[in-house]
Design goal:
Layout: H1 2-20, H2 32-58, H3 64-79, H4 88-100, H5 139-151, H6 155-179, H7 188-191, H8 194-202, H9 207-222, H10 226-237, H11 247-250, H12 256-274, H13 285-291, H14 301-307, H15 316-339, H16 344-362, H17 374-377, H18 383-388, H19 408-417
Amino acid sequence: MIRLAIPGAMLLVLTLAGLSLHTPGAGTVGTPEAKIELVILLGLSAVVYLVAVVAVLRWRVRVIWLVLLIAVALRVPLLVSPPFLSSDLYRYVWDGRVQAAWINPYRYIPDDPALASLRDDAVYPHINRADYAPTIYPPAAQVIFALVGWIWPSVTGLKLAMFGFEALAVGCLLGLLKAARLPAERVLIYAWNPLPIWAFAGNGHVDAAICGFVALALLLRVRRWNDWAGAALAAAVLTKFLPVVIAPALWSRHGGWRLVLSAVATMLALYAIYLGVGWRVFGFLGGYGTEEGLNTGSGLWLLAGMAKLFPLPAFASKAYLALLGLILAGLGCWVAFVRRPDDAVALCSAAGAMMAVTIFGISPHYPWYYASLAVPCVLAPTPAVLWLATAPVLLYLDTYGDRFVWPSVVFVPAVLLAFWRPFAASPKEMT
């Protein structure tokens, strides 16, 4: 027990120390110096966490109560504190408030005079892109925001909702570990990871719902409940589109089409709720891609690095994204029709690989985009995926627009680790 108690206590101390750096009332940490200090503490937390992961993988420990107790203790101080590493949570609260007033959240930007009566001093001033961008979040996310908007329309209410999705993820992961006959304590790989802790308990990112829905889809697939697995996958996809890439891992010869039809039907039903605005139901999706430099390649790590060596042609970004799409399509076909993962470990391994290739390819500079990678790592902790699920805490450091030099601290080791698999303890885990 002591092998986990010590790193658990260290994680709690580091978390409280990081939280203490926040200047009360400040929308960010407070000062650039405090931000650097916080990222140093997050980096130290990542190191301690990885030590705990090695301990739980190498030694048989039967202390699931301790793992869950520390997981909750790490989150409680952040849950009751205001978000200060991102302002996205205020947009969630706003979207929920708009829906509680029976207004389609895709219809108006927050700054529109039609919504003037909904403004306040606690939420509205903190909404990012309020004067030009409609909401970007898909229908499943909007349903979550609406429910919170009707029940407890506040930052705390949404944080608790995300905590609930984390609890769903942990519960499903425990079910998957049981199905794979692996120690329940391995849920620590998700529950103690500082990236989800700070992204979800600290800043309430809706990606927590992705973790819950993805874990649920994997568990339902293992139990052969393909219809429900398809619905869970659809909910994950319409929370934030990226989880669509795990669909090949969930495919099976027996029941695969039922999963697909269920997913499509669920997505159509969710979109139908908001179709009163027509094509505006896709919100700020196109504008976001432009802002993030996907159209020019400046926001893509590999292209940003190449641009430092020589001028890129105008079509570089389109060619890169097309190549990434072909790679994902080929990998997806191999996973679905050649590898055909069926047991819990193989499913998580395939899902983790698809998610990691996708997130590496688009290389977002927002740390919380990587947090859902911790879910498949619980059963299939390949080093490259585990690194990408943890190291992006370093991306909280403000690099002033640089999308290559500092992000290389995350992406270069990921490439190197892709060729190293020390955690596989049996042929089954090597699948």
